[in-house]
Amino acid sequence: MPPKIGLAAAPTRIKRRVINRDRLEADIAEVAVRIFAECGYEGTSIAAIAEAAGLSKQNLMYYYPTKQALYERVLDDVLDDWLARMDSLAHEEQDPHNVLRAYIQAKVRFSREHPWASRVYAMEVIGGAKLYGEQIHDRVVPLLRKDIDVFEKWIAAGRIAPVNATHLIFMIWAMTQSYADFSAQMALVLGRKQLTRKDYDDGEETIVRMVMAAISLQAWPHHHAQTE
């Protein structure tokens, strides 16, 4: 009987170890994202991240053998979140205005809640995406094309104005992510130490209004008349 009890308990112990490892890896990545954002990839060391995480360098490297592995984990987390939000755009059966409004709200919320993650991604892209460019190309491009196809179907059906969908999405990215990447500049101009919740809400409302105006059929009366 004792051996059977031990065998039955083994999967539970294994599962617990996996859960604990996943949690610890996530905790390490959460510490790393801020250091990468403040110091850049080249200026960050595994030793600095380990110290901030309360681990020895050797212990940290058990979970992330190299700095690049940890850096890629950080960027994977950012991209996973952004791609999930992009996927929400690719639903042609839904109302375009509601879809875009929800997308903008989610992007501004990410900038407010995860500014360090946004800055790490921005720094990688500004530097030419030398370490993460392949992942961006392989994962972002297919979903972007899918979203653009939905926009084109909305346009063909006369549900939104004939906008350039690619550049509209680029503009949404730029406007929403600036509230993370350039929040220090914004706060400085506004005479504050940091942006307030109202600042983010005001920015979100302004972006939504601009995008809604861009896709409004009222701004394109000739096209609207043709689709009726």
UniProtKB/TrEMBL annotation:
Keywords for this protein: DNA-binding
DNA-binding region, residues: 45-64
A GO term, aspect molecular function: DNA binding
Ranges where the HTH tetR-type domain occurs: 22-82
Pfam family, one: TetR_N
This protein's record includes keyword Heme: no
SUPFAM superfamilies in the cross-refs: Homeodomain-like (SSF46689), Tetracyclin repressor-like, C-terminal domain (SSF48498)
A single GO BP: negative regulation of DNA-templated transcription
Protein name: TetR family transcriptional regulator
